[in-house]
Amino acid sequence: MLLIVGALIVLGSVGGGYVLSHGYLPMLWQPFEMIIICGAALGGFIISNNTHTLVQVMKSIPGLLTGSGMNRSFYLSLLTLQYDLFTKIRKEGVIAIEEDIEEPDQSPIFNAYPDIMKHTTLVEFLCDYMRLISSGNMQAHELESLMDAEIETIQHELEEPSHAVTSVADALPGFGIVAAVLGITITMRDIAAPPEVLGLHIAAALVGTFLGILLSYGFVGPMGIAMKNEAYEKLKAFECIKASLIANMNGLAPQMSVEFGRKMLFSSVRPGFNELEEYIRSPR
């Protein structure tokens, strides 16, 4: 939603200011300039990225409209899921969760949190490290080092769409200049035309530079930054799991273990201590 609001503000401000300054709005409609700029940018985008990154960018764009979904309610569920697993370990032993982590789709504990089950990578991350803990062959510091390394890899993957889109944004002003130069070339061909005809050609060429800069700084660049911010939001869920697991592995009670995870979250989505405690104790 914020993507749409921001885009409307950009268009309204630029177009409105132009019209109020007695500009002729239809003059800005230059579809062939748009073909040159957007087509060249798309081609460069495809050349510079692999198939995986292209797919991830396409998947990330709808998320800019809907958000990551990792809000306060999501983290209440994530922390409570971990609390339930830690409680089961404390009561029945670490072997008791083997069926849950081997087939989370069939686990009553995991299925109690459908909003978490939608994030398959996050569930796999949690199950993998619970499996390593249940093996009993790793020390807490060894597990923490391994988790740090994997989180670094996940961060790199999550930021790939942002880097790809930002690169396109950096290139768009240059492609705008390309369109402008081609427009001037056409103008030079008709150099003997009347001044009013030459003026239209030159204006159309200048629109190419304008469009390249507007698309870069008004739309594509901000989209790249938004994708990067969304990647940070997603990464916090993995850091939350890491903190909770290490705390539990060091012998802390389930309630205190998830408190370590809660402290990893951004303040805008972090549940309060009492809020989390009430949620944990509420029937599900």
From TrEMBL:
It is found in: Cell inner membrane. The keyword Plastid does not apply. InterPro entries: Flag_MotA_CS, Flagellar_motor_stator_MotA, MotA-like, MotA_ExbB_proton_chnl, MotA_N. Keywords: Cell inner membrane, Cell membrane, Cell projection, Chemotaxis, Cilium, Flagellar rotation, Flagellum, Hydrogen ion transport, Ion transport, Membrane, Transmembrane, Transmembrane helix, Transport. Pfam families: MotA_ExbB (PF01618), MotA_N (PF20560). The chain crosses the membrane at residues 27-48, 164-186, 198-220. Its main location: membrane. One of its GO terms (cellular component) is plasma membrane. Residues 135-230 form the MotA/TolQ/ExbB proton channel domain. It is a multi-pass membrane protein. Residues 4-93 form the Motility protein A N-terminal domain. GO terms for biological process: bacterial-type flagellum-dependent swarming motility; chemotaxis; proton transmembrane transport. Belongs to the MotA family. This is Flagellar motor stator protein MotA.
